[in-house]
Write a structure and sequence with these properties.
Blueprint lengths: L1 H33 L18 E8 L2 E8 L4 E8 L2 E4 L9 E4 L8 E5 L3 E7 L5 E7 L15
Parallel strand pairs: 5-8
Antiparallel strand pairs: 1-2, 2-3, 3-4, 6-7, 7-8
Keywords: Signal
């Protein structure tokens, strides 16, 4: 009987360690995202296609989050995207000025981010705000969407 109890105890201990490792991994991913998204200067690479903006990308559970900040670190907008769908996040001073579409339509807008599945453009408004458009275009790539820093 003690052999069975010892075996059961080892199995339970192993299961507990595996569960703890899984929870720790998930918590690390979640805390990394929450500690950067919405911040002025997140601990992430600036992947902006424009020298007038800072763009940061976070990924969690297959969803890509893209945040746009100005050069002073003010968060202007953020979107989430996965599987060709884009949602506007309630983050930033221009969160109410973000639209989504299938293609970029305003040629006067500046491309601030493009990765082949989504492109984000910025267009200054007369009231001092900025309108952003996030376009999901599977045909879009760095060269055709104007990506690359300084373009």
């Amino acid at each position: 009987m003690s052999r069975i109890q010892g075996s059961l105890a080892r199995k339970l201990a192993l299961a507990g360690l595996i569960a703890a490792g899984t929870i720790s991994s998930a918590f690390a991913q979640t805390s990394a995202l929450s500690s950067g998204l919405g911040q002025s200067w997140p601990n992430a690479a600036d992947v902006s296609a424009s020298p007038q903006w800072h763009v940061y990308v976070f990924t969690l559970h297959g969803i890509k989050y893209v945040q746009i900040n100005d050069l002073n670190g003010t968060v202007h907008a953020a979107i989430g995207t996965a599987a060709g769908t884009v949602i506007v996040l309630p983050v930033g001073v221009d969160a109410g000025n973000v639209t989504t579409s299938q293609v970029l339509t305003n040629t006067a807008a500046t491309i601030v981010y493009s990765d082949g599945t989504v492109s984000i453009s910025a267009m200054p408004q007369s009231d001092g705000s900025t309108a952003f458009n996030a376009a999901t275009n599977s045909q879009c790539n760095i060269s055709s969407c104007g990506g690359g820093r300084g373009n």
